[in-house]
Amino acid sequence: MTAAVRLGELGFRLLPRDGWRSLALAAAMGLAFGAYMALADSLVFPSIVPEVQHVMRAQMTLADRLIFFARGSLVDEIAFRLIALTAIAWGIANLSRRTGSQVLWAAILLVAFVAYPLGNWTYFRALDASALTILREVALHGAAGVLWGWLYWRHGWLAGLTGHVSAHLALQPLLGAM
User: Fold this and answer.
1) Does residue 44 form part of some domain?
2) What is the number of domains present in the chain?
3) Percent helix, strand, coil in the chain (nearest 5)?
4) Is residue 14 one of the residues assigned to a domain?
5) Is 75 exposed, middle or buried (0-12, 13-18, 19+ CB in 10 A)?
6) Domain for residue 173, yes or no?
7) Which end of the chain is less crowded, N or C, counting CB atoms within 10 A of the terminal residue's CB?
């Protein structure tokens, strides 16, 4: 009988794998992704941007939104990467008796496209259930989850958090400008 896969064998770590280089990469990727999200909402999806996004922009200052989303990023990264991604990858590895990129990619995709929507069901339930809305959520939130999961796996949990927060540092000011 094969021994259970240990968490350490999956390659996850809390601190940045390559120190400041990992954090700089994560910040750059997050800023670029935040700009992509703002451009997508203003150019491709302007008719289906959720009402809550318009309300937050109208009722909260930029500083308040940045604080709100920094806290939300931290909560998401703890819940969906540190806990869910680690647990799902560990479960897949132990069920399949394998480790490696296939296991990690399967876990990243499950978290981004299944666990995240289920964990944010109230938000998703309030959206218009059109094909365009589903495309927006996959292209923006699903893709973000894949990116944050990849950063966690390859560069450490702190890099994933840095990328997530950095995305909002670009997204929130750009949403106000567009």
Assistant:
1) yes
2) 1
3) 80, 0, 20
4) no
5) exposed
6) yes
7) N
The C-alpha atoms of residue 87 and residue 104 are separated, in whole angstroms, by 11
Q: Is the pLDDT of residue 2 over 70?
A: no
pLDDT band of 124, cuts 50, 70, 90? confident
The pair of structure tokens assigned to 77 is 């990264």
Q: What angle do CA 127, 140, 160 make, to 5 degrees?
A: 125
Q: Do the beta carbons of residue 125 and residue 135 sit within 8 Å?
A: no
pLDDT in tens, 131-176: 899 999 999 999 999 999 999 999 999 999 999 999 999 999 999 7
Q: The tokens of 31 are what?
A: 């800023």
Interatomic CA distance for residues 62 and 67, integer angstroms: 9
Task: Please say whether the beta carbons of 113 and 142 come within 8 A.
Answer: yes
> What mean pLDDT, rounded, does the chain reach?
94
- The reply to whether 41 falls in a domain is yes
CB 109 within 8 A of CB 138: no
The long-range contacts involving 155-158, CB below 8 angstroms and separated by at least 24 positions, are: 155/16, 155/17, 155/18, 155/22, 155/25, 155/26, 156/13, 156/14, 156/15, 156/16, 156/17, 156/22, 157/12, 157/13, 157/14, 157/15, 157/77, 157/81, 157/82, 158/14, 158/15, 158/16, 158/23
89-113 pLDDT, tens digit each: 999 999 999 889 999 999 999 999 9
